[in-house]
């Protein structure tokens, strides 16, 4: 029973194993649990791509997906997340995928429930399947992490993936720099001395990873600027794209604010991997679900199954 | 990859082919795509029968239906319809069924996304699967269109099906007349000289097709009358039904406002095909989905498959 | 076509048959209808456990579950429950599961629609699958009903299960007593002379069945007390649990108000069957769905199928 809560808890070997398994799925590998298995997606915050991506991944693995509508559930009667998950466990659900607005909501569950929890985003905290799909997209492009320079640009403070991506990429051997409005940064980030001005970052990186401005997470006292100003100062403009390194790529977790983080006409340009990232999301989620459900079943069979697939680092 | 956006874009031959395929499904024919296929139903407006009808049709074809809740999706973060559909395409969805409150919303998609769009209703514009199920119901009854007289009665201006039904029925050889409150009509309709008073229309038609009063689409300045007045002046009363032609039938797209468009006790009377229309809706949607998914797959097989089924005009 | 509306309409033999079939499912028996079958869950009130439990049961029987969102359906356009269910019937749905806030909502349907209705809770009225899962949990524990003493404690007036459980248990041979705040009781209950004070009830019963305080059903004029007061006066405190009979058990329909009806640390104690009840809910619903769908199909096969399974009373 393997949870997936944060990328920082994963070793480099575990990350590579998840990526390899995802790549196998991308190449057409199939895997299904050996008995009818149930999963519930508990999304307490709006989401299209993550929820639908998990749904497609679940169906491709032949799982039964139990609809769980947070707005019409007993949560509105005040039921705790723990009681909700224990209920689902009791009725036969084999794994839960949870998105929740509270940071580290999963501390209420871990070690107490007997089914794996897959974190699909907690507050401003973590979003491990997003991080992993970013890593897969980079690996597919460069077949390595060591020696790459990756710039993460934008709304770092409210991003679930900025810090976990930086952590994982660094452990995998890449160099990570941050850019964007300094007012939006933690002191931690700034003190790290890995802040770069936007033009240097874009011109020298192999991967330009733009972050969505999380308007919905900004408080009233936040420094605000117009969309046009943001785009001009910190966005990937048509002009800046021309100065990117040869064979460097553009990434964005989406949904994109067109003409804010990135110029409208660049969203689907040749360098853009934005829709490729979404496609990879399905394979990463298949890999992560397989990992969680494999160990449930006692798993000798499926551990062997991992071994049968060549693992390349 | 065959979209279905409006009936007016369909040739008479295409209409007949869709009807024939639907009738084959009604007769027990089966068809499934040759690999796991995904469809998403994007309903940005409330609907029971259309959405559930598509769901049943999709399951009968063995499709995987990806739940898409418009109220909890990224659309609430301001994502465009184009970006939403491209996202679904990226994660492996093979076709989208869309209902949207804007007329011709599909212009934003057509030629830009690479998966078929099936229109399940746009604003006050089109509702092609509703039109097609109406046609199937008429064909089952009379086995022809030529020579039939069909009266379409009621809220023409706000109806998605009135004009497209009139267009298709005329092309198929039927005579179409309109009736109802003149204030609710376009000048186009009135100038067509095919307006008839309610009693003549009902007494001389083979098909009396009543339209739902779309209270929810009426603006504040609309001419309003009481339900009782509407029923008396323009509704199918018990008395008017007695004066209908022998073997003529009653149709209504539902949901019915009982005792407004039609007397409560007539909704399930012998002449009524209202619930038959709903039943036919499933077969039409199976036919339309098959048509969209067939061409995706390159389709020699399935084109042959069409040929194997006798097509009767 | 066997409806399930209330437990009081079921004979003792029918109850025992449903319990036996459920126990067979608990023991690993499998049953699937012999053709693709569709079911729709119409929940007009919030629910996690009942809705998800039905969903799991339905998937285990291989049924196709048609999503029906009450908030986005034509019900918001004013469609009646009858027209909604007739619509679902017309498009091929084979059974409906309904939860509705009105007592006896099903009177609008019974004898008029041609598909079975399974009541998942009506107003303050009935909740037969909850009653049946309670019975199954008791039967698993004691393998009999005769001679058992069961106390039902708490918010009797707003409980869907209190009266129907009392009725069924009495018919099955058990003794039932009530306890809790007298202000919350019907005169019927009090006059029955089966009211006991909380401490006597808890110390002398084989089954202590606590009811959820239905805050959401209490009106403004209800007698209110603090949670702490309720717990102290009428709750299962840690201290009261110590005075329970040897081998007696604790039940609660959930969701639990922790530290109100029952002390937090007792929810998952050794005597507690609260999560067991949820687990049994799936088997009961499988049994009830099988019963409804069996008779639809004409059913000689499935009637035999019942006979093939030994029925123990």
From TrEMBL, chains A, B, C:
One of its GO terms (cellular component) is cytosol. The keyword Transferase applies. Transmembrane segments: none annotated. Heterododecamer (2C3:3R2) of six catalytic PyrB chains organized as two trimers (C3), and six regulatory PyrI chains organized as three dimers (R2). It comes from Niallia nealsonii. The keyword Oxidoreductase does not apply. NCBIfam families: asp_carb_tr (TIGR00670), PRK00856.1 (NF002032). Keywords: Pyrimidine biosynthesis, Transferase. It catalyses: carbamoyl phosphate + L-aspartate = N-carbamoyl-L-aspartate + phosphate + H(+). Carbamoyl phosphate binds at residues 49-50, 99, 127, 130, 254-255. InterPro entries: Asp/Orn_carbamoyltranf_P-bd, Asp/Orn_carbamoylTrfase, Asp/Orn_carbamoylTrfase_sf, Asp_carbamoyltransf, Asp_carbamoyltransf_Asp/Orn-bd. This is Aspartate carbamoyltransferase. Residues 3-140 form the Aspartate/ornithine carbamoyltransferase carbamoyl-P binding domain. The lineage of its organism: Bacteria, Bacillati, Bacillota, Bacilli, Bacillales. Catalyzes the condensation of carbamoyl phosphate and aspartate to form carbamoyl aspartate and inorganic phosphate, the committed step in the de novo pyrimidine nucleotide biosynthesis pathway. Belongs to the aspartate/ornithine carbamoyltransferase superfamily. ATCase family. One of its GO terms (biological process) is amino acid metabolic process. Pathway: Pyrimidine metabolism; UMP biosynthesis via de novo pathway; (S)-dihydroorotate from bicarbonate: step 2/3. It is an enzyme of class 2 (transferase). The gene is pyrB. Pfam families: OTCace (PF00185), OTCace_N (PF02729). One of its GO terms (molecular function) is amino acid binding.
């Amino acid at each position: 029973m393997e949870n997936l809560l944060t990328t920082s808890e994963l070793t480099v070997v575990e990350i590579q194993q998840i990526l390899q398994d995802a790549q196998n799925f991308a190449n057409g590998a199939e895997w299904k649990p050996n008995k009818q298995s149930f999963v519930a997606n508990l999304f307490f915050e709006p989401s299209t791509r993550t929820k639908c991506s998990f749904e497609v991944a679940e169906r491709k693995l032949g799982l039964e997906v139990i609809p769980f509508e947070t707005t019409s559930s007993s949560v509105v009667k005040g039921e705790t997340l723990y009681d909700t998950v224990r209920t689902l466990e009791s009725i036969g659900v084999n794994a839960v995928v949870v998105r929740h607005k509270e940071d580290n909501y999963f501390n209420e569950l871990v070690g107490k429930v007997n089914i794996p929890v897959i974190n699909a985003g907690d507050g401003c905290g973590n979003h491990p399947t997003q991080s992993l799909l970013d890593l897969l997209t980079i690996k597919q492009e460069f077949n390595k992490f060591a020696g790459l320079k990756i710039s993460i640009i934008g709304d770092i403070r409210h991003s679930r993936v900025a810090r976990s991506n930086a952590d994982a990429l660094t452990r995998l051997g890449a160099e990570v720099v941050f850019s964007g409005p300094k007012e939006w940064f933690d002191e931690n980030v700034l003190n790290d001395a890995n802040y770069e001005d936007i033009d240097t970052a874009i011109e020298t990186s192999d991967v330009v990873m733009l972050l969505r401005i999380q308007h919905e997470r900004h408080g009233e006292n936040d420094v605000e600027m117009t969309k046009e100003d943001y785009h001009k100062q910190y966005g990937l403009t048509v002009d800046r794209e021309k100065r990117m390194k040869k064979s460097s790529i553009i990434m964005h977790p989406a949904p994109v604010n067109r003409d804010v983080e990135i110029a409208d006409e660049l969203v689907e340009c040749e360098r853009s991997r934005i829709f490729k990232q979404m496609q990879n999301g399905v394979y990463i989620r298949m890999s992560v679900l397989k990992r969680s459900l494999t160990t449930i079943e006692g798993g000798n069979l499926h551990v062997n199954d991992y071994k049968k697939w060549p693992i390349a680092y």
